[in-house]
Amino acid sequence: MRLEFRGHDYKYAAEQMMLTLFPEERPQYDLPLTGEENGVCLTLTEGEGTLNARAELTWNGKHTTGTAQVPAVPAENSLLRDRACQKVLKLAFYRAGVEALGHEPPWGALTGVRPVKLPTRAMERGATPDEARRELEEVYRVSPGRAELAMDCAKASLAAKRSLKEDEVSLYIGIPFCPTRCAYCSFVSADVGRALKLLPPFLEVLLQEVDAAAAELKRAGYVVRSLYVGGGTPTTLSAEQLNVLLGRVGEKFDLSRCTEYTVEAGRPDTITAEKLAAIRNNGVQRVSVNPQTMQDHVLAAMGRAHTAADILKAFELVRASGIPCVNMDLIAGLPQDTPAGFRASLDQVLALEPENVTVHTLALKKGSRLMGDGSGEGPGLPTAEEVAEMLSYAWSALRAHGQVPYYLYRQKYMSGSFENVGWTKPGWESLYNICMMEELHTILSLGGGGVTKLVNPYTGRIERIANPKYPHEYVESLEKLRTGKRQAADFLAALREERH
Ligand code: SF4
Fold first, then answer.
1. Following DSSP, what letter does each residue of 120-188 receive, concatenated?
2. Closest atom of ligand 1 relative to the 302 alpha carbon
3. Ligand 1 contacts CB of residue 267 (under 6 A)
4. Percentage of the chain lying above the pLDDT 90 cut
5. Which of 76, 96, 135, 244 is the most buried (most CB within 10 A)?
6. Is 232 near ligand 1, meaning CB less than 6 Å away?
7. pLDDT at position 67, please?
């Protein structure tokens, strides 16, 4: 689609809205608008105390116009002014787009992966929950069901934020190994069948990164508030390896204020009583057992080497271990699945009474086997309407079971432009998930593929430091890892100075 801007250069905002409305289009800047080819001219002007935007769109021979207006923001407040300019441009583009399309996407004019930020910010500025919700539904045209999801999550985000102290961070440790690779996976996880010999050297370097990170965090004067060991599948490690890793973490970091400690035990074929005992004895209170589906033929189509019966056995082992909080992940939209199959999977999971349930929507990404030739059409993929039916059942069944949504995010390439939602029994919200998704404070990341996110809560700016993704790169990168931890501690120490 040809894009032309007048009075601004907000490319990112325009492209985000273009992908929301017309996901198959790609931006073109070097071709003039003809009034015949698909294209949009986005104009930004300033009036008496207002910012005004106008979008003139040509789409498959249709010509539509959208306009929007928001209160002006003084130029000296550059962050807020940028947000206001982007908002008004997106709204004008959206209005022109839906008139041409004749329908509205489920998240309306909201773009980006974090739809909860908008109502959260509105309430922080003093809006009531009703006002924040009205803005979602009336200004951004979010559907009532999704506005309700976002509002529940915004309330959970504000509660989490209030509970955080300024000298706290969250810690993530990435274990990029899995027993086998799932068909939809784009993650760099190495399957241990082929990469087993890399596990001991990986662990050796990880222990040294733990030492470096703990020392740097102490130097900066910060402590760990929540800790998440993810992957990959951390329980690919043996009980002894888990004991060594978690033991070292407990020994080196100050965990006296760590109120939540999660280990992903995602694949039931990796869960044993010995591993759970090692996890429990090191202070872990939350694990994630991830069936994705309880349909054996769907599991087989995903390339998983286990059955639904194995998931039930693994769940029993977790309950017997005494770990108090269990999350279970399901995916709507898996190949070979149907609305009836998804309903049966969710009903079986709910019968187990897990404290948390996360409902993902299948996101096909480059790098996954299902993506195949890049067409995105895998065998037996449910339609967008069927996925919508699955999600709508999930919302009512989960609420009927006393679960409430507490965090959500969207992904690019997500089927039907839907979302992933974390549900919880009240009081069992995962603080780490909220902090991560809503970018409430710094996440210090260790291990393969870990991305440290340095959050400046005063400016809203975020800097990232990425660890090497692949185990064979990671084991060669100790100096780089140490440097990254030093940079993170310098950032945190400077933030501390800023506060005083
Ligand atoms: S368990 Fe997760 S990380 Fe591992 S292969 Fe499957 S989808 Fe990928």
1. HHHHHTT--HHHHHHIIIIIS---HHHHHHHHHHHHHHHHHHHH--TTEEEEEEEE-EESS--TT--S-
2. 6
3. yes
4. 78
5. 96
6. yes
7. 97
pLDDT at 385: 87
pLDDT in tens, 3-62: 999 999 999 999 999 988 998 889 999 888 988 999 999 999 999 999 999 999 999 999
The CATH number assigned to the domain with range 164-491 reads: 3.80.30.20
Give the DSSP letter string of 183-240.
TT--S--EEHHHHGGGHHHHHHHHHHHHHHHHHHHHHHT-EEEEEEEEES-GGGS-HH
Q: Is the pLDDT of residue 112 over 70?
A: yes
* In CATH, 1-103 is 3.20.20: no
**Closest ligand 1 atom to 231 CA:** 3
Tell me, rounded to whole angstroms, the distance of Cα 170 from its chain centroid. Answer: 15
Q: Could you read off the pLDDT of 328-359 as tens digits, one per residue?
A: 999 999 999 999 999 999 999 999 999 999 99
Q: Is the pLDDT of residue 376 over 50?
A: no
**Whose CA is closest to atom 8 on ligand 1?**
185
The helix-helix angle for 199-220 and 239-252 (nearest 10°) equals 10
Average pLDDT over residues 304-311: 92
pLDDT number for residue 321: 97
What is the share, in percent, of the chain residues with pLDDT greater than 70?
A: 94
Strand (E) or helix (H) holding 405: strand 404-409
Tally Cβ neighbours within 10 Å of residue 138.
11
The answer to whether 233 and 181 have CB atoms below 8 angstroms apart is no
Asked whether the beta carbons of 147 and 135 are under 8 A apart, the reply is no
- Say if CB 421 and CB 408 are below 8 A apart: yes
Tell me the mean pLDDT in the region 112-124. 92
Rounded to whole angstroms, the Cα distance separating 32 from 82 reads 26
Domain boundaries, given as residue ranges, for the chain: 1-103, 108-155, 164-491
Q: How far is the CA of 48 from the centre of ligand 1 (A)?
A: 54
pLDDT higher than 60, residue 366: no
Is residue 373 predicted with pLDDT exceeding 50? Answer: no
Q: Is 6 left (phi over 0), alpha (psi -120 to 50) or beta?
A: beta
Distance 493 CA to ligand 1 centre (A): 36
Tokens 């930020």, residue located: 117
What is the torsional sign of CA 472, 268, 245, 451?
positive
- 185 Cβ below 6 A of ligand 1: yes
Neighbours of 37 (CB within 10 A): 12
Q: In what order do the strands lie in the sheet with 50-59?
A: 2-6, 39-46, 50-59, 62-71
Task: Answer yes or no: is the C-beta of 471 below 6 A from any ligand 1 atom.
Answer: no
DSSP symbols for 39-94:
EEEEEEEE-SSEEEEEEEEEETTEEEEEEEEEE---TTSHHHHHHHHHHHHHHHHH
- pLDDT reported for residue 64: 97
Q: Of 43, 35, 52, which Cα lies nearest the Cα of 6?
A: 43
